[in-house]
Amino acid sequence: MVTYTDYLTINTKKRYEIVDITDEIERFRAKANLSDGIILVSAMHITASIFVNDHESGLWQDIMAWLEDLAPRKSGYKHHLTGEDNADAHLKRMLLGHQVIVPVTDGKLDFRLWERVHYGEFDGQRPKRILLKAVGV
Amino acid sequence: MVTYTDYLTINTKKRYEIVDITDEIERFRAKANLSDGIILVSAMHITASIFVNDHESGLWQDIMAWLEDLAPRKSGYKHHLTGEDNADAHLKRMLLGHQVIVPVTDGKLDFRLWERVHYGEFDGQRPKRILLKAVGV
Amino acid sequence: MVTYTDYLTINTKKRYEIVDITDEIERFRAKANLSDGIILVSAMHITASIFVNDHESGLWQDIMAWLEDLAPRKSGYKHHLTGEDNADAHLKRMLLGHQVIVPVTDGKLDFRLWERVHYGEFDGQRPKRILLKAVGV
What percent of chain A has a predicted confidence (pLDDT) above 70? Predict the structure, then answer.
């Protein structure tokens, strides 16, 4: 049985940014020598998301505009009484979810054509970590 | 240790539709001969969801109306500049999530009375695939 | 290989409430004797959530106000024709998600400083169950 863990660090240039991390996950799979099982991909900071969607820059802009509409950056959040200014990031991260399970079959990520794993950053410009854990054979 | 994978294909009659797939998952569990562990149920197309909720047609209508309210089908999405017309489906699928882990204990789906696994289709009328993967003993 | 299952029961005083269950999950990990793998934490009732976010009471209030804004408690839901009055709870639970995978590495929950697992109750004041399942070594 295989259990194997590693961590990615991402430091985005912008406060809000989407990054495709699928190739990093495939590199991790090879390092873990996982041929069948699952890979947990989980954001370790509570202002970031992991989600599976299309690698298409227009859609990425739609996603960011939509998140801003449903969970706007604004003053007035009670969380800001602590001195923070990122309550919107905590909410946005929950809309998209903070983790994904990637299936692995026959030594490959078991994805259809358009499935790509993305990191969604909503409070960036500093190093943030992502956990990768393989479980299987 | 058991690892076992299979795929369902669903072709809905309508563009937007909810389908209860719990019985298919139990059939898969039996085929996988999984007595304790987890089953990953994951939509392989990026315009569909997997979620656990009540099998109740009034609630299903509420869910669809609510999704349309929060992520409406409309023109103006940047994703449509590629020729697509389904940006709303990409957003709706993220609100409900695209995968579920079903726990299996003592050779049964470890669910309480009202827990049912649903497939949410937001761009249907063509064959779409769902991955099922068992990991455990 | 370890597979181990247990259940928590939570009975909140209020209809809507957030409860930090991270310490209970660490107790479960120790009982399961899991040193590397995953713990599935899954709400067994369809009007409750499991999510990872900051243990900060201002943020918890922001989350509840935000959920009420996006999925309000109101009359008019079709689900209420069955005699129920909790359609909003079914929707709120989907916004935050109903399950989380907790990674375990070196005999500890593999979390960064601010990651805490929360139970979100949207139709409480009665006993509700949460499933915990360990898979790994």
Answer: 100
Find chains touching chain C: ≥3 CB pairs under 8 Å. A, B
At C84 the pLDDT is 96
pTM (predicted TM-score): 0.98
Domains in chain B, CATH or no CATH each: 2-74+84-136 (2.60.120.460)
Average pLDDT for chain B? 98
Q: C87-96 and B57-70 helices cross at what angle (nearest 10)? A: 50
Are A136 and A3 a contacting pair, CB within 8 Å?
no
Portion 10-69 of C in contact with A at CB < 8 A = 36-38, 51-54, 56-59, 61-63, 66
**B42 to A101: CB separation less than 8 angstroms, yes or no:** yes
- Positions of chain C with pLDDT under 70: none
State residue A123's pLDDT score. Answer: 98
Size of interface A-C (CB pairs under 8 A): 78
- From the centroid of its chain, how far is CA A6? 15
Q: What value of ipTM does the predicted structure carry?
A: 0.97
State in Å, rounded, how far the first CA of chain A is from the last one: 5
Q: Which residue of C has its CA nearest to B53?
A: C46
